[in-house]
Amino acid sequence: xxxxxxxxxxxxxxxxxxxxxxxxxxxxxxxxxxxxxxxxxxxxxxxxxxxxxxxxxxxxxxxxxxxxxxxxxxxxxxxxxxxxxxxxxxxxxxxxxxxxxxxxxxxxxxxxxxxxxxxxxxxxxxx
Length: 127
Known about the structure:
By secondary structure, the protein is mostly helical. The chain has helices at residues 22-36, 43-47, 52-59, 63-79, 88-97, 110-119; strands at 9-13, 101-105.
């Protein structure tokens, strides 16, 4: 593992680094946004990596619509699988064996994190 000696703590983003969720989100947004934004042909490229708040404010300024979209996302995230990125678990074991402190940094809300914790008991305690 090639980590400089002066590094003591490693920060991990959740989506796309710890969990392989990007394809799930892309498929979700393609399926759902087509109904609401048929004129936005390249919207999927524009929202990739965006937080939900950015998406809501940019494409759904109406508060009633925002609530509807948030409810859809919450439902989706409750049913979504949270598969680790291939190789992450092995890498993380080495990180922990090396004595590094670790933290997850994410814009995910508490509801989603509860889904992660339900899918992976003990996840919270690893960071």
